């Protein structure tokens, strides 16, 4: 009778561990200007960034008094989308409101 060969090539299989890494986070910074109304900034914070009315007012006052304020901290793609949405809303309403993205 013929000798039976093993069905493997006798190599060692290594188990690899997948390491899950949290994405890098970025801050969306609202920048103050002399033309955008406080009400519009509060509206943007409530609708685009899902902030409460009280938190929206606090951030708006920080932008007004200090020149800038953090609207939120997100992964890059989300931060970029929020800035694009904010810019579109501001241009549609004819306000020069701007936002910047910085590494958190």
Structure description:
The chain has 104 residues and is of the alpha+beta class. 39% of the residues lie in helices and 20% in strands. The protein has helices at residues 38-47, 53-66, 76-92, and strands spanning 25-31, 68-75, 98-103. Helix 1 (38-47) crosses helix 2 (53-66). The N and C termini lie far apart (71 Å).
Features:
single chain; 104 residues; alpha+beta; three-stranded antiparallel beta sheet; 3 helices; 39% helix; rod-shaped
Percentage of β-strand residues: 15-25%
Q: Topology as H/E string?
A: EHHEHE
The helix content is 25-40%
Number of helices: 3
Tell me the distance between the termini: 71 Å
Low-confidence stretches: none
As a whole number of angstroms, the C-alpha radius of gyration is 25 Å
For the biggest β-sheet, the strand order reads 2-1-3
β-strand number:
3
Whole-number average pLDDT? Answer: 92
Tell me, briefly, the overall form. Answer: rod-shaped
Largest β-sheet summary: 3 strands, antiparallel
Class of secondary structure makeup: alpha+beta
């Amino acid at each position: 009778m013929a000798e039976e060969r093993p069905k493997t090539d006798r190599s060692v299989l290594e188990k690899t561990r997948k390491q899950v890494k949290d994405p890098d986070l970025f801050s969306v910074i609202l920048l103050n200007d002399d033309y955008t109304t406080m009400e519009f900034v509060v509206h943007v914070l409530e609708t685009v960034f899902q902030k409460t009315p009280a938190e929206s007012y606090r951030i708006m006052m920080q932008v007004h008094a200090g020149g800038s304020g953090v609207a939120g901290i997100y992964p890059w793609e989300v931060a970029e989308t929020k800035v694009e949405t904010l810019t579109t809303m501001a241009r549609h309403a004819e306000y020069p409101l701007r936002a910047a993205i910085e590494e958190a």
